[in-house]
Design goal:
alpha+beta; five-stranded mixed sheet; two-stranded antiparallel sheet; 2 helices; 9 strands; elongated
Length: 185
C-alpha cells in the first residue's frame, strides 16, 4: 500500500509492505521485490520516501560493506532476507532507520517468537538517503497494544531542507552621458 501526502515544503510518500518469510520460495520473494521496485521507481526523487512494514529480514549488528544502507546498531545476525533487503536498499538509496541509533536490545526487538524467548528485529522503517539527516530516532514501542506478536516501530523525522542560492543577475549599467551625443541619440 502506498500513500502520498502533501505538506508545506515537501511531499511524503509512505509505502507499507509485508514481505514473505524466509520459508517462502524464491519465486514469491523475487516477485515481492520486483513489485516493490516498480513502486519505488514511480516515486519522484525529490519527495521524502518512507518504506515500512514487516520485511521479515534480519539485518544484524555491524555494517561492514553496508555503511550506506544501515548503521552499526542492529540486532543479532544477518539472514538471507536481510542480505536481499540490504542489496535492494543499496540499489535504491534507502537507509534502514532501526540500525542507526543506539538503543538497548529491548527497544530494538520488533517480533518475539512463540516460545517467548527469541526476539528479532524484522520490522523496519526506512527513509531515502537524501533525507537521512532528517531522521532523528527509530525504535520499537513495546507498550502499544496492537493485538499482535509484533511491536510497533516509531520513527521521528524532522524535515531539514536545503536552502537554495538564488543567482544574482548582473546589473547592466548604462552610460547616460553618451545620450548627450547627437549620434547616440
Amino acid at each position: 500500500m502506498s500513500a502520498r501526502c502533501s505538506s508545506r515544503y515537501a511531499k511524503l510518500i509512505v509505502i507499507q509492505v509485508y514481505a514473505p518469510t524466509s520459508d517462502a520460495d524464491d519465486e514469491s520473494r523475487g516477485e515481492f521485490y520486483e513489485q516493490l521496485q516498480r513502486e519505488v521507481e514511480t516515486t519522484p526523487s525529490h519527495d521524502v520516501l518512507i518504506v515500512m512494514g514487516d520485511l521479515n529480514a534480519k539485518i544484524g549488528e555491524g555494517n561492514e560493506g553496508w555503511e550506506k544502507v544501515m548503521g552499526r546498531y542492529g540486532l543479532g545476525g544477518m539472514n538471507e532476507n536481510g542480505e536481499r533487503l540490504a542489496t535492494f536498499y543499496g540499489n535504491n538509496d534507502l537507509v534502514i532507520g532501526g540500525s542507526l541509533f543506539k538503543h538497548r536490545d529491548i527497544h530494538k526487538i520488533t517480533w518475539t517468537s512463540p516460545n517467548a524467548r527469541d526476539g528479532n528485529q524484522i520490522d523496519h522503517i526506512t527513509i531515502n538517503g537524501r533525507h537521512r539527516g532528517s531522521l532523528m530516532d527509530t525504535r520499537a514501542m513495546r507498550g502499544a497494544d496492537a493485538n499482535s506478536d509484533h511491536h510497533m516501530v516509531m520513527e521521528k523525522v524532522i524535515l531539514k531542507l536545503c536552502s537554495t542560492k538564488r543567482k544574482r543577475k548582473e546589473r547592466i549599467i548604462f552610460d547616460i552621458k553618451k545620450l548627450r551625443d547627437s549620434c547616440v541619440k
